Amino acid sequence: MQQMTQIITNLLTSDNDVIKKATADLQEAYKHPETVPALCEIAVSAPEPQVRQYSAVLLKKHLAKLRQWNKVPVEQQQIIKQGMLNALMQEQQKSVRKAIAQFVGVLVRHEAKKSDSWMSEVLKFIYSYCSSADPKQSELGSSTFAILADAAPDQFLQHMESVCEMFTAALVATEATGNMATPVIFNILTGMTYLVPFTLGHNTAEQTLQKSIPLIVKSLQAFAVQPEVDQFVHAFDILESMADLNAKLLNNHIKMLLEFCLEAASNAQLDSAVRIKAVAYVGWLVRLKKKLIIKQKLIEPIIRVVFNLMATEPEDEDDDEEYFLGEDNSNPMTTATQTMDLLALSVPPEKLIPPLLQLLEPALQGQDPLPRRAAYLSMAVIAEGCSEAICNKYLETMLNIVKVGITDPIPLVRNAAFFALGQFSEHLQPDITKFAPQILPILFEFLHQLCNELRVS
After folding, report:
1. Rg of the chain on CA atoms, in Å
2. Where are the domains of the chain?
């Protein structure tokens, strides 16, 4: 074991020559059956956390393939499985625990088809620790659950009902404390995200998960106001996973989900990453559940919030051009514009255009250039999805509005109007061509003025 410890210590140095020799020594050591037990002993007993962690990492890499695990004698396999499970409970260093848990994930995958009780012991450990009143134990249980769900999600397939019950119980228990933005909730949301596709066909599990959505939303509301915005972004993945992989789970809670997203998107006090996630998910829900949304009369509130977000100040001077250039540097304004585009592609024009026009009129008449820009952007992005309705009923009206916009003195408004004209030219053929005699003189006059300005400057 001492020789193996020295190899690991050498692998952790910054000297390339030492690392190269240690790597060769490690490959030679792997040829000997005593190496795996030595690594396990180091992972649980070495004084230095770095050495314990790296030993667990090496075990995970070396035994990742089933054929390597099968080379280990059955008696040693039993000792390793039990030893690593015990190490999870006893290890104090978070980085080491994570490495051991990832190795346990490999073992879970390899041992799934065996009839011994080890998998039941792993689940018992997770369930009991997740429900523990001791914060350290509950965090350990939940982090282990998240890591194992990532490493071997299919191995939870036979246990989906009990896993969903554990998930809901943790949410309920944490809600009672008054603070849902905890490491435990973050971990179980993360773990459950990996397992959402495996709930398909498990009616009881689906029902349990569906009933937990109000508590999921409540926890996301708590994470949304925390300083570490990445936690919200990752925790939100569970709603995206449901929408993408088992959308029927959302059916009973569409109104609640939309209200949460619209409120978050509208809240200028929240981090941009939160608002981007929220308004993008609105578009996702509209695409998937438009009939339910229309039935519940939620289209108009969506249009109002999305338009208002399109009328916000760009986060920096370059952001204003991103939508026109097709750059993928998301901010709340550009994401809202993409959501308006999705609305036009998903919602019947008669449900979208009239309420949108009610917002455009005061925006175009006002002195603030941002709502004016939003008005032209809105007309631009609905051109594709609502092309037939626009050509039949609104084309001349919209063109007259755009003709005013391309001579607007404010560049950001003028750019949006030109963008709208370009979208009309692309998506409203051949109807738009008959208006060329009205549009071209205005374009030529503007280009003439622009050339004069360039000469002067």
Report:
1. 29
2. 1-114, 117-245
